[in-house]
Design brief:
Elements: E1 2-8, E2 11-22, H1 29-54, H2 61-66, E3 77-83, E4 115-118, H3 124-129, H4 134-143, H5 148-157, H6 159-167, H7 170-180, H8 184-189, H9 195-209, H10 215-232, H11 237-248, H12 252-261
Parallel strand pairs: 2-3, 3-4
Antiparallel strand pairs: 1-2
Helix pairs in contact: 1-11, 4-6, 4-7, 5-6, 5-9, 7-10, 10-11, 11-12
Length: about 270
Amino acid sequence: VAELQVTDGDVTTKLLVALENQTCTSAVMAGRSLMSTAIRWDGWRRELKRLHKSRKELKSHQEVLDGVLPSDRMIPVMVLVIHFGQEAWTGLPRFTDTLACPPPLKPMLADCPSNVISFYNLSNNELEKIQEGATRAVAKSIRFVDDMDRLCDEMKKDQSFRKLLEEGPDEALDVITIATGLDMQALKKDKEKDMVKKVSKFEEHFINKGKVLGREEERAKIALKFIQNWRRRNIPESQILQDLQADFELDAATARQYMDAQPVNA
């Protein structure tokens, strides 16, 4: 989850963007997005309640019950689904589309969109229209993950990969590492400046490996980094555990193992 700033004219607001990675269509993705948003809303409400209570700002019975004031505004949450499967995404776009109810009733129901970006299904022209940089490098890595010759060729000729290795961000490198099994962080640390030489190392690595390895290991590394960042922001341990399960699709026992594996003061 990343906190971004969104500007519209003279107004700048905060936006939380949560990322979901999918290899195949999820029929309940919009519902999961709604649940993820509700979890963050409840965490926000609890934090505000503690703050208002410490300042003795809750006056009425309803304000004490809610924990928020009428002037409080929640940071909006946007869930982006990155689909890198080999078949078209067929999930319904909104949560209310999955409900068996009369259409006139839908506007009165809680809803959430399923914001899907299917890189695998983008055409070559659509890929080239993406602004040069980290996003295009990630998109091409996912699009050509099953064609290493094509991917290595794109790495050599597309300046997006050179910029990514020189400037980051590390999160984009992590996504490519998970998608391809190739260690982008290692390439970034490489002292060689010639991109062709770097890609040659990629090709040699892939041939020697013979297959994509280490996805679960990389996933664990990112989960531990997630826990560390959340603790630095003083997010309650119970909330971190909930977010860990929701964002990484872990069961409670596995999430707890990750929490225990990452020391509190790390």
